[in-house]
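for the writeup, i need someone to sanity check this before i put it in the appendix. the sequnce is what the collaborator sent (i think, or maybe the updated version? ugh). structure was predicted straight from it, no edits. if anything looks off just tell me and ill rerun, i have time this weekend
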Amino acid sequence: MKRLIFIAILTLGFASPVLMAQKFAAAYLDMQYILKNLPQYETANEQLSMISKRWQKEIDAAQQEAQILASNYQTEQIFLSADMKKKREDEILEKEQYVLELKRKYFGEGGEWYKKRESLLKPIQEEIYNAVQEIAAEKRYDIVKDRSADPGLIYMSSKLDISDQVLEKLGAK
């Protein structure tokens, strides 16, 4: 038993300096800087903006129609029969439901805007990821961190910034 304890202590004694001496090679990048300097990202953003504006115009037009129906109903309601009031109220409610459905369809969770955004940006993200992977393999980095996504990062040497190298790999510099 004493022998077993002695071997365990001896093993831990030799292993701990080896474990302590183990170092990680790290680098960082600034994803916002990279994206700002990629023309294809700017193009994708412009496409998203155009689509978003077109859909918003459609929603605004439908919303305006609902407001006009409601306004007309308010002014004409005293002259309408009970059946006509019910019919107009149903029209207004239907138009408002249509507006809500359009909003949900285009901009809701899992809506068209998010699908379009993913289809436009995913290839760009994959390109960046592949470039980072290649650089990390070449330079033997164990860790590559995004500086723009880590508010807790106080200081890192500019020697460790690989943002420009990523842009070079992507052909943007």
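The radius of gyration is 30 Å. The beta strands are 26-29, 143-146.
thx in advance!!
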